[in-house]
Design a protein that fits this description.
By secondary structure, this protein is an alpha/beta fold. It contains 6 helices and 5 strands; from the N terminus they run βαβαβαβαβαα. It has a 5-stranded parallel beta sheet with strand order 2-1-3-5-4, with helices on both faces.
Length: 150
């Protein structure tokens, strides 16, 4: 598994913990930035991670900002992306099992480092179940197609 990771300035410190955890788990990743706590704009990094995942170069992505919301909204503008913001492990697990989420959004001002790692572990462990859930993903893809003009 290869994971694309990105954050804004608020998520920079939490990103460091996430990257260290991925290394400990032996999971390959690429850090798309930002690389400091200097103020920046989260849509830049949400798009970079989403493009990397949508292209197939990376299997999944992780995006981090203050709440996880803004950077996830930006990532979700890229066709084929299903970014979710999770503040507890149960939703992270089900987002993989039922929604085949491919980007996890975390809020550095919402979850502490230990909880973020528990959320990440649940998300990494989750496998898409398909079956009854596929019809819903197909409906989402139809909405995306209808509104993208493709």
């Amino acid at each position: 598994m290869k994971i694309a990771v990105g954050c804004d300035h608020v998520g920079y410190e939490l990103k460091g913990r996430i990257l260290q955890h991925l290394e400990e788990l032996g999971i390959a990743y690429h850090d798309f930035g930002t690389n400091s706590t200097e103020r920046t704009d989260y849509p830049i990094f949400g798009e970079k991670v989403a493009d990397a995942v949508a292209s197939g170069a990376y299997d999944r992505g992780i995006v981090i900002c203050g709440t996880g919301v803004g950077i996830s909204i930006a990532a979700n503008k890229v066709p084929g992306i299903r970014a979710v913001v999770c503040s507890e492990p149960y939703s992270a697990l089900l987002s993989r099992q039922h929604n085949n989420s491919n980007i996890l959004g975390l809020g550095a001002r919402v979850v502490g480092g230990d909880l973020a790692l528990m959320i990440l572990d649940a998300w990494l462990k989750g496998e898409y179940e398909g079956g009854r859930h596929q019809h819903r993903l197909d409906l989402i893809a139809e909405i995306e197609k209808k509104h993208s003009g493709k």
